[in-house]
Amino acid sequence: MESSSSSNWSCNVMNVISGEWAESMSGIGAGIDSFYEYLLKSYILYGEREDLEMFSELYRSVMKYIRKGQSCVDLLVKGDTTEPPLFVNVDYSTGKLSNYWIDSLSASFASLQVLVG
């Protein structure tokens, strides 16, 4: 699977026959959540460095392009709730906001963050 050359993340939906991306949306929820999960858990279970490297590269891109809002430190320590941290869906090729909704499968990403440390 090839990620966007400019952002190093993967799209949510792929045509399994052609191998082409079928949509331009990328995020951490439905359609892609298991990919992140399996990369990290595969490394934990089998010790394959390539899985960890792929996960780490995608994770850095998620934190750079998909995570929006203030830091958790500002939220917890300073009590500033003006821009709570959240993960959004973005356009795969441009990195711009794709929509304003978040699906329930996005919630599983927090468990991966706990595993990563």
What is this structure's SSE topology?
Blueprint: E1 25-26, H1 33-46, H2 49-66, E2 67-68, H3 72-76, E3 86-87, E4 90-91, H4 109-116
Structural commentary:
It contains four helices and four strands. A two-stranded antiparallel sheet has the order 1-4. It is 38% helix and 7% strand. The chain is mostly helical and 117 residues long. The chain starts with 24 loop residues before the first strand and ends with a helix.
- Number of DSSP-assigned strands: 4
Q: Largest sheet, described in full?
A: 2 strands, antiparallel
Distance between the termini: 26 Å
What structural class results from the helix and strand content?
Answer: mainly alpha
Strand % is 5-15%
Helix share, percent: 25-40%
Oligomer: single chain
Over the alpha carbons, how many angstroms does the gyration radius reach? 15 Å
Mean pLDDT: 82
- Strand adjacency order, main sheet: 1-4
Secondary structure tally, helices: 4
Written as H for each helix and E for each strand, in order along the chain, the element string is EHHEHEEH
Q: How would you describe the shape?
A: globular
Q: Which parts are unreliable, with pLDDT below 50 for 5 consecutive residues or more?
A: 1-5
